[in-house]
């Protein structure tokens, strides 16, 4: 029997495109998927657990991991570091789980550099007008900030060529269905199966 390894899927796209909504809906339908737990230097909040909500580390520990290239990506936000630990992701993959990383475009480019064998999915809105409506519907941002986000989105959409797949988020369940098809298709690629299959044939010969 072929024991398949998991795959790292990176779900990315402009702010406001609905990455979190699509990822949550996807996880409700597929229990084999694992969400990548982030590492942070911020203080643990009430009810949070290490290794469940985040991997909590000190600033010195985090900086040491940066130097040792033990993070797939990281960023600093309001005085604290956030990042994706490479060892955790690799263990989940070895255990046969597909790991999903939901991340902004700049972080995805870091992952591409450090883990090029990942599968990169770019989520885009049906139009920039629709993206503007979604951001406005949040009701949390000024017109100036909305304009800034839209300009940033235009620049990020131009980076589409760096991704393996593009999914239009016109409807959440439609987008989820397309992502599921990508997951299934990636597992059927001969490059992922042939090595294990040949090993299996060698065992049967003995």
UniProtKB/TrEMBL annotation:
- What transmembrane ranges does the database entry give? none
Q: Which gene encodes it?
A: gmk
The record's listing under HAMAP family reads:
Guanylate_kinase
Q: What broad class of enzyme is this?
A: transferase
Lineage top rank: taxon: Bacteria
Say if the entry is tagged with keyword Transmembrane: no
Q: What is this protein called?
A: Guanylate kinase
Pfam families linked: Guanylate_kin
- Location relative to the cell: Cytoplasm
Which family is this protein grouped under?
Belongs to the guanylate kinase family.
- GO molecular function: any one? ATP binding
All copies of the Guanylate kinase-like domain together span 6-184
Give EC number(s), comma-separated: 2.7.4.8
**Reactions this protein catalyses:** GMP + ATP = GDP + ADP
Record flagged with keyword Cytoplasm: yes
- Tell me which UniProt keywords the record has, alphabetically: ATP-binding, Cytoplasm, Kinase, Nucleotide-binding, Transferase
Its cellular-component GO annotations read:
cytosol
Query: Function of this protein?
Result: Essential for recycling GMP and indirectly, cGMP.
Q: What InterPro entries does the record point to?
A: GK/Ca_channel_bsu, Guanylate_kin-like_dom, Guanylate_kinase, Guanylate_kinase_CS, P-loop_NTPase
Q: Which residues bind ATP?
A: 13-20
């Amino acid at each position: 029997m072929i024991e398949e390894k998991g795959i790292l899927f990176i779900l990315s796209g402009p702010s406001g495109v609905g990455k979190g909504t699509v990822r949550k809906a996807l996880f409700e339908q597929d229990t084999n998927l694992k969400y990548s737990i982030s590492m942070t230097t911020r203080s643990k909040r009430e009810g949070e657990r290490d290794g469940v909500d985040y991997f909590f580390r000190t600033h010195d520990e985090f900086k040491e991991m940066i130097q040792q290239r033990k993070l797939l990506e990281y960023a600093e936000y309001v005085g604290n570091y956030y990042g994706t630990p490479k060892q955790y992701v690799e263990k989940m993959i070895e255990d046969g789980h597909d790991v999903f990383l939901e991340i902004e475009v700049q972080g995805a480019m870091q992952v591409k550099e450090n883990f090029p064998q990942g599968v990169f999915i770019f989520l885009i809105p049906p139009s920039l007008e629709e993206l503007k409506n979604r951001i406005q519907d949040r009701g949390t941002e000024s017109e100036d900030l909305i304009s800034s986000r839209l300009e940033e989105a235009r620049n990020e959409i131009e980076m589409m060529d760096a991704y393996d797949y593009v999914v239009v988020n016109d409807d959440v369940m439609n987008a989820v269905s397309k992502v599921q098809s990508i997951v299934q298709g990636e597992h059927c690629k001969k490059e992922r199966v042939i090595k294990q299959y040949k090993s299996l044939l060698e065992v049967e010969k003995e």
